[in-house]
Structure formats: structure tokens, C-alpha cells
Amino acid sequence: MLPTWNQTPPFAITRASHVALAVTDLAASRDFYRDTIGLVVTEETDDVVYLRGLEEASHHSLRLELAAEPKALAIGLRVRTDDDIVAAERHFKAAGIESERVEVDHQGPTIRFRDPVGTHLELTSSMDVVERRMQQFDEFVAGAPQRLDHYQVVTYDVQAATDFWTGLGMRMSEYTATDGTDELWGTWMEVKGNTHDLVFTNGRGPRLHHFAFTVPDAAALIHAADVAGARGFGQEIDRGPGRHGISNALFLYLRDPDQHRIELFTTHYQFIDLEAEPIRWDTSNPKRAQLWGMPASRRWFFEASEFPGQPVLEPSVRANPATLEDFLGVH
After folding, report:
1. Which domains does the chain have, with CATH numbers?
2. Which of 22, 35, 302, 311 is deepest in the core (most CB within 10 A)?
């Protein structure tokens, strides 16, 4: 069923902030995100690399941590003030949700918690401020990513995830549902006035499907694909270029050396006015995922990054999308 949007949430979430990934070769991952994707390296140590988009003033939007195996450590959301961190702690305690205050380099007050479907999250109210590079056009390389925009998480219970986050003030802009019903298979939710900051889709989860950065235009997507091919990552183009029906964005998905997935895309439309209703898509409508071109591969649909120590559960009814292999008759 459709969720109830809480317009007076207990604390104020403002946007997607940062993602933390465990990687097995820090130098290889740094080179991929800097040279093949085009992110800016803010700082690096023997164990951690911090990167950001060209227009970002926050110290980082991507944190790479050296580890024995690749994992999605956490996705991060910003709240408006330090008082919102305190309010979040108070709310989680009352709701029986475990959270902990942690010290994270270059971040202000930060708490970690897991939502009801097991997604690992960080909330922070501030970050160290650094110089924006948005007018250093000589530094625009590969896709020239501008800023972190959103995440997509695969979950075994889309309804529970959606109810939780709309209860914290996220507004559903678009959704997919079983034909003729409101049985939710995917929900696109936002707080910053475009179509999504956080997406949940049906499948084995929780797992991080992808995180997404905006790029300046369609030419940047093509150049990113060319650079990936020239640098030996052509086979790691996971999907695209193409155009989504949901959000209307042009997109390109790539896999990093540890198979974490990043999306580059040309941003989406405005979703601010309160009278605008969420757009509904039947699961049988292939245009929801791609307005033109062939469907995504099996690995795009079924592979994703696990969170550390988090059991991966099966949904009660698992999606069975038409894949590129089905389209081509490949078994």
C-alpha cells in the first residue's frame, strides 16, 4: 500500500551525503574513481582515500577504506543541524532502534544505525569545507562528476523500508507496483526537491545496488564511457548509456575494481510542489527502467554490494525482470 508521508518529521534530513566502501586495493580504487570516473581526491592515507565531486564543498562524498574483502560500509545522509543529530538519537531510542555516536574524521557529529530492513547508515550534520572545483574546467576529466545525488538499496521488504523513511520525512516521487495493485516493488523517495535521494527495490537484501553522481551533460556520459574503454574498464560498463523512464535521466553504470556499482547521470526533474502526486509504474511496463534500448543484464539486476555482518534475506516474492540475456536468447 502507499505510505503516509510525514511532513513534520522528528529531525530534518536534507540530502544524500556520502558513501563509505571497503575496498581490497586502495591504490587501484583511488585510480579508478579519480581517472576513470573523474572524482577529485581530497586526501589520502595508507588506509583511507577521500574523494568528492567537482562542485562539492564538503570534504568528501566517497570514503574508500582498505579491507580484506569488499563491502558497502554505510550510506550517509546529512541532517540540517547538530540539534537534529540529538533529535535523531532521541527518536531512535524511543523507537527501539540501536544507534551509536561515532567520531569520523572530517565529519561533524555523526551517528550510525541500521534501518528496519538492515541498511547501514550514517547521519552527520556537517563536514570540513574545502574548495569547490566547479570552475576549474581544466580539471574536468572522464565524466566530470559534479555531486553525489542518491543511492539505490535492494531490500527484501520494500513496504517496510518505505514506511520507515517516509515516516522520517522522505516523500515518494515515483513507484513501481504489481499491475493493478499498490503492492510496492520499488520506491523513489526524496527530501531535496528532485525525484530521489534514496531508492528501495525488491530483491535479496539489504545490499547497496549503486550510488550516483550527477554529470554536466550527455556528452560527459559518452566521454566517461570512452575513458573507461581506453583505460581497460570497457567490460565494467554495467549498463547504458540509456534513459530511464523513472526520473527521466540519461545514465551510465560502471563497476569498480571490487565490483561496487556507480551511476553517472544527467540529473532529474523538479519534484517540489506539494500537489504533485507520485508517478505510478506497473512492473510489467519495461519503459520504467529504460525508455529506449535493450534491457539491463542479469548482473545489473541481481548483483549488489553487501553490508558487513548483515544477513541477506530473500523477499517473500522475488522479482523476475526481463534481462538482456532473455532478450538475446542467451542461457
Report:
1. 13-127 (3.10.180.10), 143-321 (3.10.180.10)
2. 22
